[in-house]
């Protein structure tokens, strides 16, 4: 729709039974006083693309039953208020605060939450990544921020997007403990060193692996061929050396393979055409 105008607390004062509020994708300005206490308890809040910020809406702190909270593209700015993670710890399962200008650091542990999906991408978060996540968390999108430091041990996540940050240090063997991982994007960081051999032995469920535009080096480990579900492999613009591992011929589900802009040597062997019959995109330039 294209509903416009300004919504204030007056619009809600008699809606005592309201449980679902969905105003998303409308050019609506939500202007509510910071001292307002809502007469209802919401379970589902969808305000994506509404004009809500720059200040975080204080009335949310009185909502203790929210399960899904979508505030993406709401022009929120500044740091998250201290009370926010208190309401998040109780009932919120899906949280989307992406594409705002929220600053500051995340708590060192989010284990106290019940989150299943967390989208904080395209903000201005900084500092280290949380060291502990809830076992319920399935999907974590933190890309396009300014997170620094190394990767923690997150054994339960399925999908992780951390591209366009400032992560540095080695791609340590801690990543091999992410045994439920299916989707991993670490592109456009400052990661150093080699791909650990255990990655190919441990991440048996992964189908998407993007390590583009880092500072990784050494040979591509032969254990990469153990990733039989792999559909997309992107290692472009690193400093990998040696030959393309023969074991890649066992990744027969690959449809996108990008090994461009490295220091690889050797010949392009016949197995690429014989075994990788699902390939739609093959990039090998500038080696």
- Record the strand order, biggest sheet: 2-4-5-7-9-11-13-15-17-19-21-23
**How many beta-strand runs?**
23
Number of helices: 3
Please describe the biggest sheet, giving its number of strands, its sense, and whether it closes into a barrel.
Answer: 12 strands, parallel
Structural class: mainly beta
SSE string: EEEEEEHEEEEEEEEEEHEEEEEEHE
What is the general shape? elongated
Instruction: Please name the CATH architecture of the largest domain.
Output: Alpha-Beta Horseshoe
- The first-level CATH class of the largest domain is given as Alpha Beta
Radius of gyration: 22 Å
CATH domain topology of the largest domain? Leucine-rich repeat, LRR (right-handed beta-alpha superhelix)
Mean pLDDT: 93
The figure for the number of domains is 2
By CATH, the superfamily of the largest domain comes out as: Ribonuclease Inhibitor
Helix content: under 10%
Description:
With 287 residues, the chain is mainly β. It has 2 domains: 1-148, Ribonuclease Inhibitor (Leucine-rich repeat, LRR (right-handed beta-alpha superhelix), Alpha-Beta Horseshoe), CATH 3.80.10; 160-286, Alpha-Beta Horseshoe (Leucine-rich repeat, LRR (right-handed beta-alpha superhelix)). It is built from 3 helices and 23 strands. A 12-stranded parallel sheet has the order 2-4-5-7-9-11-13-15-17-19-21-23, with no helix packed on it. It has a 5-stranded parallel sheet with strand order 6-8-10-12-14, with no helix packed on it. Strands 16-18-20-22 form a 4-stranded parallel sheet, with no helix packed on it. The radius of gyration is 22 Å and the shape is elongated. The model has no long low-confidence stretch (mean pLDDT 93).
